[in-house]
Amino acid sequence: MPKRKICVVVTARPSYSRIKSALKAIQEHPELELQLVIAGSALLDRYGNAVDFIEKDGFTIAAKVFMVLEGENPTTMAKTTGIGVMELTNVFYNLQPDAVVTIADRFETIATSIAAAYQNIPLVHIQGGEVTGSIDEKVRHANTKLSDLHLVSSDDARARVIKLGENPEKVINTGCPSIDLVKEICAEETLNFDPIEKYGGVGEELNWKDGYAVVMQHPVTTEYQKSREHITETLEAINKLNYPVFWFWPNVDAGSDGTSNGIRTFREMVKPKSIHFFKNMEPLDFLRLLKHSSALIGNSSAGIRECSYLGLPVVNIGNRQNRRLRGKNVRDVSPQRDEIYDAMKEVINYNKFPVSKIYGNGEAGKKIAEILASSELSFSKTINY
Amino acid sequence: MPKRKICVVVTARPSYSRIKSALKAIQEHPELELQLVIAGSALLDRYGNAVDFIEKDGFTIAAKVFMVLEGENPTTMAKTTGIGVMELTNVFYNLQPDAVVTIADRFETIATSIAAAYQNIPLVHIQGGEVTGSIDEKVRHANTKLSDLHLVSSDDARARVIKLGENPEKVINTGCPSIDLVKEICAEETLNFDPIEKYGGVGEELNWKDGYAVVMQHPVTTEYQKSREHITETLEAINKLNYPVFWFWPNVDAGSDGTSNGIRTFREMVKPKSIHFFKNMEPLDFLRLLKHSSALIGNSSAGIRECSYLGLPVVNIGNRQNRRLRGKNVRDVSPQRDEIYDAMKEVINYNKFPVSKIYGNGEAGKKIAEILASSELSFSKTINY
Amino acid sequence: MPKRKICVVVTARPSYSRIKSALKAIQEHPELELQLVIAGSALLDRYGNAVDFIEKDGFTIAAKVFMVLEGENPTTMAKTTGIGVMELTNVFYNLQPDAVVTIADRFETIATSIAAAYQNIPLVHIQGGEVTGSIDEKVRHANTKLSDLHLVSSDDARARVIKLGENPEKVINTGCPSIDLVKEICAEETLNFDPIEKYGGVGEELNWKDGYAVVMQHPVTTEYQKSREHITETLEAINKLNYPVFWFWPNVDAGSDGTSNGIRTFREMVKPKSIHFFKNMEPLDFLRLLKHSSALIGNSSAGIRECSYLGLPVVNIGNRQNRRLRGKNVRDVSPQRDEIYDAMKEVINYNKFPVSKIYGNGEAGKKIAEILASSELSFSKTINY
Amino acid sequence: MPKRKICVVVTARPSYSRIKSALKAIQEHPELELQLVIAGSALLDRYGNAVDFIEKDGFTIAAKVFMVLEGENPTTMAKTTGIGVMELTNVFYNLQPDAVVTIADRFETIATSIAAAYQNIPLVHIQGGEVTGSIDEKVRHANTKLSDLHLVSSDDARARVIKLGENPEKVINTGCPSIDLVKEICAEETLNFDPIEKYGGVGEELNWKDGYAVVMQHPVTTEYQKSREHITETLEAINKLNYPVFWFWPNVDAGSDGTSNGIRTFREMVKPKSIHFFKNMEPLDFLRLLKHSSALIGNSSAGIRECSYLGLPVVNIGNRQNRRLRGKNVRDVSPQRDEIYDAMKEVINYNKFPVSKIYGNGEAGKKIAEILASSELSFSKTINY
């Protein structure tokens, strides 16, 4: 019997980390053949070209798709998606997969969904059913409505996808594959690398060994003009706290230029003493850095997902993660420097929280592969009510 | 105060007919400015270029967008959508509308939705919340999840959109604007034109004055290879019945070539005696033709919508209209020649059914314009559960 | 030593016939690997899908590229080219050929040229250096300026490419591969198939065995609105002559709709008695049909090229072939019914002309493969003056 | 009589400066209407968004076209061009210009040419007929073959365009509009602004008042992997010379990342003491900076054109400007640190050269407008031999 060909489209470096355990499980499954497509910002040096990581991890890339139009504004975001639909349609037409996997809710993931659904290829959506703010919210649920099989990350998400009219048999809580990675490094007692030595970056040489926090703040696309304002509030709060901080550059969403410019200007004008900047880090190292930190600050979904399992205190700024299911480790604040400062000051002295399994128990990748191998694949459905 | 700019995108001739009363009401509303975009197959002679109709009806076209890639298969359907996203993004970027209106569920309508939603333009969806088979089903609900305001055609549809997690205040049953046109011609006692004289067409010179039926059968996209088989069943049934029939060519969906080829081959081999073929007809004339006919056969949504108000008997073939809300006038059959034949034989002798207002009372256009002028427009939302 | 990978892009059915002997020679060459890309109208049923022919001829298709935007006007012609650049760039990026071959001067061939040249892939142009009217003229010479190696069809063409500033060592007269096919069937004494029996078509059952002519008339793109007018002149002339004629539908250039509509209308109004229409024919059969005909009428380049070797009288209408090198068998007329009629009346009684080798001796394919295998490939050049 | 609509497409900031005097002359001409399209990197902050300059200069922008695909490699360069063809076709379709102007030889300028030529719009090419290395060489001459009217910058260029088979009446030496700007500032005795105060930038606070040089070095696209190597040679030479230098970041060509990364790395590792970096400068200020400098180093075409009129010594590195016509002020060196160092050391002590008018006398803009207003516009041509 021929293996089922499973085409997974990864459009950004962080998505790769999140799906990696599932990719591995698919690759190793005797009844599955992995067709890995790398697209969008995952190919671009500016956002941390993921290709090197991926090949080092032992994967073969079936196709690469350049599709990011420059401009970093809502208009180029939309056009990028249009280009993605054209290109990915071609890719699927040539690869002839038995199923296509689209991941989560980045704006360009709907290109994967359309290219598959319109060509009558069974579409599998990972991480549907969650709730956030901004354009992601629309994209995620539209992906759900275009998809035939839903592998969600929590019971909460499963209930929501079913409410959206999907057949309950087609909605399965596998847990989130991002937790699989966390589990891998969870037992390590100390940080086993020197971040600055290994990753360079720019900014101050921190004395991080006695404690540090991590910052990761992305622009919020429906408010992209406010990106610069928001980032400045966070910068001011962090600078005032004067506590060692490793800061990661934002992703490719519209407005990242506002965020980036905000950071650049602040650096030149204020010359903050306690911040070191990284462009990106190998996924496992990033998790290690989190595990051994005092807190995560910003609006990264890592604060919601990975940190729940880590029990790491999180200061979650603004409405980007909105109503996404969260553990007790998350403290929400608005993008105001005082609120951020006060929250940070408190949480960096917290103990770790207990492990929460709301996003799975670290076996998601294997479950996903198993379901892809065994479940019935179809491309036609009707709403359940 | 500046008028609200309402950009309506029409991508197919039939969509134009359906939205016409709303376009007129928007154009005439003192607080609204209409920006009419004509795209896709609505521009193509092969499918009945709508531009002439539209300008004759007194509308100015703000932009024309060629976007249909040749091939008429799922691959070109997907790529057409990608081109549409690119092009419509540009159009909206230049027109700067206050709201964009996307209509129903044709595959390319999601291009309108993405181009607007990603650029943070409030998106209004007309005819959401219905249920059918095939790719339309996925597209329609994905459009709902990308839209901010839902102007639906029935109470049934309204309930479904709300179940999909939309804010009830943003879901309004205006009735379907297609019924507005029906109401216009509903009082006419006789057919006031000779179809063959006025529209030419090819095939037999029918003796239609003592009774005729109308056929309109589109390919079903998730089964596009079966299009030819299905159309042949219908052709055989109709040929056997030997009752005068006006037959309309299919639209531009993938597979229409199967349907078209099926018709062409049948004509050449069998030379049916009772069928006359039209490419298209002015919307009101089409409704007149329906009103004075004995029955509509095929899978057109006109059978479900317009014919409910007309009370015209309908033989609805196959699963294209699937679970769409229907009146008592509709009889569902599977795509088998015997079933079709038997149903037709019966219904052509029926009396008309009473007027049903399940799709509105013929005032939808005005209600739509009024809501567009007065309701709060936003582009950010979160699922309701 | 690895084989040189030669990627040939065929964008239209007629181009396939013309290049076929070269494809075969490349495929059979021990040092070459053929990567055959089929794109544009060569994939479309409307224009005679070439894929079946090609696979039957023993070629494997490396990639298919749908790129023809519907509309058949100058705007969609330009956009089609843009889509072609995007898609073919992807194709070359994935195939990684050592050289790309672009053929002649159809509008979309410049997409092949740009996709190769911009990616620093050595570009080989076949059939450069000729002279015609319309947009082809601009496209052909632009292709020359983007190309690195020029395999031309005549001494006249070679001289012209050199005058255009190309290095004489990179300009080689191989003869035209289309003549290779002619040579193959040249010795056949009679037409070895019944065209109507084998190819169907529509129109009259002609009594062609005592003599017939062939008509092939394409729209002239810089005058696309005149297409309908021109075709009508030809139709009137041919109808008046009342001599059996096999007529081929036009290709996909802008304006073919004018041409097609002209033909359709004429058929319905005038019901010409002596014309039978074909959509397309296998290349060799088409040449056979020509060989055994009395004359070719229209503006096809086959009249200039293939017919020179056949010695077939040609009535060449209008300026589409303009100043292309021609043999004594060609008689030029303007698109006026009387001129066409008079010329046809005369030439159908001519004897055949002697074989002319101005376009080669029938060994072009082999020469092309040999040069592709042995010549130095580069992608950088500077004008020669 | 309606004004002639002249659509000029500017795809990069430097092209804007060069064409500015012509834009002004077109705008002010009583028989012309300017339709200014800003596209490509001219819209992007990363490369110095030109929109602000342009609007401050009093121009209205008729359309903006985002078309630059991220990646900065030959593949994205080609795709960017494809997107450009699609988008610009739309723009011209809507603007309906009487003529389109394409400028020089950047890779994406062929998109303008195709979009115009294929839609039968008379195409005017500015700065044709010159000779350089790299992909520009192919693009420039392909632009010539697609164009109908050639407004060249030198007698040398005019002769070359005619040799390319163009009708001599359609080839006019207007001089280069870039010289018009030079003439404007040519009489100023001293630098009337402080570059660092006015433009910020990064790097050392130079003591530039006693003499400084300017550096501008772009990647060479056919050797894009060597960009980093080349830039490092220049950086080493300049660092060794230890003479104050204002350095401008490279443009958006493929490989600029190599160049940019080379600069960034050098700055961090070597911390050069005599270099100050700018992203961009208002065109007139840039010319002022040149005029009062000791020399220009790099491979910018400004060294060839503007500096000829200024009589400024130029060290021209590598083959990017190749065989472009140059004055006595230009000294060519290969991209080797010693050669660059030696040449620089010498030329910074040179006196200025006398004004050379090989690229015009500073009246090009007016001549261009006059020709556009008075010459016959056509879109059909045939090669002259």
TrEMBL record, chains A, B, C, D:
Q: Which CDD domains match?
A: GTB_UDP-GlcNAc_2-Epimerase
Q: Cross-referenced InterPro entries, in alphabetical order?
A: UDP-GlcNAc_Epase, UDP_GlcNAc_Epimerase_2_dom, WecB-like
The GO annotation for biological process reads: UDP-N-acetylglucosamine metabolic process
Pfam assignment, any one: Epimerase_2
Outline the extent of the UDP-N-acetylglucosamine 2-epimerase domain. 24-372
What are the recorded GO MF terms, alphabetically? hydrolase activity, hydrolyzing O-glycosyl compounds
> Which Gene3D superfamilies does this UniProt record tie to the protein?
Glycogen Phosphorylase B (3.40.50.2000)
* Name of the protein: UDP-N-acetylglucosamine 2-epimerase/UDP-N-acetyl-D-glucosamine 2-epimerase, UDP-hydrolysing,TIGR03568
* Naturally occurring in which organism (per UniProt): Salegentibacter salegens
